[in-house]
Amino acid sequence: MVQFQILTGKQAGATWVARRFPVQVGRSAKADLSLNEEGVWEQHLVINLRPDSALEAVVPEPALASLNGQPFREAVLQNGDVVALGALQVRISMSPTRQRSLRSRELLTWIALGLLSLGQVALIYWLG
């Protein structure tokens, strides 16, 4: 999943996670990430997931944006890139992963090893 961390503006410090693509960013209430900030257009940025799993950012006309300080219309995003939309800055990165608990599998493995060991001891005792 992709995480948007708002660095400046009214919502500074807030994060938003994209769970599906394309992601529409802008001032519009219909945008996936709605940002009511100075200089942000109704539809300011669209982020697509390309077939090669790269994230592509597209800025529709007449909006302007910069990627790591360089103006762009279309660019491939890297983890940690900062996109400026008007006066707003947003860091785009991979969201932190959560590891699922493996306690039940680990417990079953230890039980199986214990039973196997007991079976071997019983077999040695029975044959000996």
Explain this structure to me?
With about 130 residues, this protein is α+β, with helices and mostly antiparallel strands. Helix content is about 20%, strand content about 35%. It is built from 1 helix and 11 strands, in the order βββββββββββα. The chain has one helix at about 105-125, and strands at about 1-5, 15-20, 25, 35, 45-50, 55-60, 65, 70, 75, 80-85, 90-95. Strands 2-1-11-10-7-8 form a 6-stranded antiparallel sheet, with no helix packed on it. A 5-stranded mixed sheet has the order 4-3-5-6-9, with no helix packed on it. β7 and β8 form a beta hairpin. The longest helix is centred in the last third of the chain and has 25 residues, at about 105-125. The radius of gyration is 25 Å and the shape is rod-shaped.
Note the main attributes of this structure.
single chain, 128 residues, alpha+beta, Tumour Suppressor Smad4, 2 domains, five-stranded mixed beta sheet, 1 helix, 11 strands
Whole-number average pLDDT?
A: 90
Looking across the biggest beta sheet, what order are the strands in?
A: 2-1-11-10-7-8
Q: Which band does the percent of strand residues land in? A: 35-45%
Give the strand tally.
Answer: 11
What is the CATH fold-level name of the largest domain?
Answer: Tumour Suppressor Smad4
Question: How much helical structure, as a percent, in the residues?
Answer: 10-25%
Order of helices and strands: EEEEEEEEEEEH
Structural class: alpha+beta
Shape: rod-shaped
Any idea what the CATH architecture of the largest domain is?
Answer: Sandwich
**Distance between the amino and carboxyl termini:** 59 Å
Instruction: Just give the CATH class of the largest domain.
Output: Mainly Beta
The unreliable regions are none
Question: Major β-sheet, in short?
Answer: 6 strands, antiparallel
